[in-house]
Fold:
Amino acid sequence: MPEIITVGIVEDSAPFRIGLREFINASDDVRCVCTYPDGTAALADLPAQAPHVVLMDLQLPDCSGIECTRRLKAALPGTQFMIFTVHEDSERIFQALTAGASGYLLKRTPPDGILAAIRDLHRGGAPMSSEIARKVVQHFRPQPARPAPESHGLSPRQEEILKLLAQGHVPKEIADKLGITIETVRSYLKLIYQKLHVRTRTEAVIKYFG
Amino acid sequence: MPEIITVGIVEDSAPFRIGLREFINASDDVRCVCTYPDGTAALADLPAQAPHVVLMDLQLPDCSGIECTRRLKAALPGTQFMIFTVHEDSERIFQALTAGASGYLLKRTPPDGILAAIRDLHRGGAPMSSEIARKVVQHFRPQPARPAPESHGLSPRQEEILKLLAQGHVPKEIADKLGITIETVRSYLKLIYQKLHVRTRTEAVIKYFG
DNA sequence: TCTCCCCACCCCCAATTGGGGGTATGGCCA
DNA sequence: TGGCCATACCCCCAATTGGGGGTGGGGAGA
Structure:
């Protein structure tokens, strides 16, 4: 028995909003639990509804759907946001993604595709219209400047230990996990500190993440 | 009458390679015109075939599929490359995209999905498995996960100390920097550990960055 | 052959850390 | 007015950490 996916809709066009809701509610596994015609209404009530997924139009009368997404995402980190719009310019796409959206559908998407995208989003995917996906992928291209691809010169074992450190494990736990003594782990840590030019586990982890 | 989409396959596993070719050729609109078991063979012959789409395994015997993609894309800018692999670590995904790939499928993708992805790629899309798309989207926002500092319920002073921790400072240095005694810093750290449900500085910093 | 490096282990020791107590001041607010 | 919390400080103590030494074995290269 699959869980019912709850959906909120933020869309200024009433016919479109209602039509979308009716279509969604005609499905077995997705329910539209709230709709809003503008950002103000959504910001006021949507956090209390906390749907799994929010469909967000970009063109709202009072504020941009991007700003609206940013604020709602801050209040509802667990909710997945899908932009649903006619705009497909790169600038807006990237702003939407940085604002916290995980999906980006064009309005010309067929109804079945919308439902499929909602399910995909809820499963942890990032549904995007083809055109959007291509723009996102292309944005990776003009950056051939790969900054420092692993130049710390750590041996495989040393890196393994660093990775466990970065997961929050204390040396004793690392020793247990790897089936070696704590003394060995300590030896490795000393070497790692030397190579990374740090003095503590914490600094090493920061270097690892930085 | 739709144009026939020509496909090249670079894949070291012979059964997989053959099976994929047969399956593709069973379709009406897609034809596999060449297959290669390794990067060397692909680099030598694929430019002469110039298929519309190339399915590229990442795990090749002689060189990485990423490097192979980079060179082939340089020779065939009009050809669309789709990575086809079991790897889904972020590092490889981004390397593949910067190398010129426009699609990224996991091998667990059902056959129908593979054909659909080939068509999508040829139409100008960027087909990706759900897991891949989500990773791409998430990495697109390097620092959006910052605006949630209140969630852990730290006081301003506690957060200030945590921030210094996250810069690699040791408690004694924090005391000096803030002009308070180390004992005070230690008291704060205990509170911070409690609130964040961690036991060490390192874990606290990981939480801070996570 | 003879290094060099990686892996694994051991000892010592000073310093630090984390956990447990505690005290005192001041602000907020009900 | 009393409670609650943030800030700031103190003590003790076991355990851990970081830095300094060292011992081997095994594999890759020169």
About this structure: The first helix of chain A runs from residue 14 to 25.
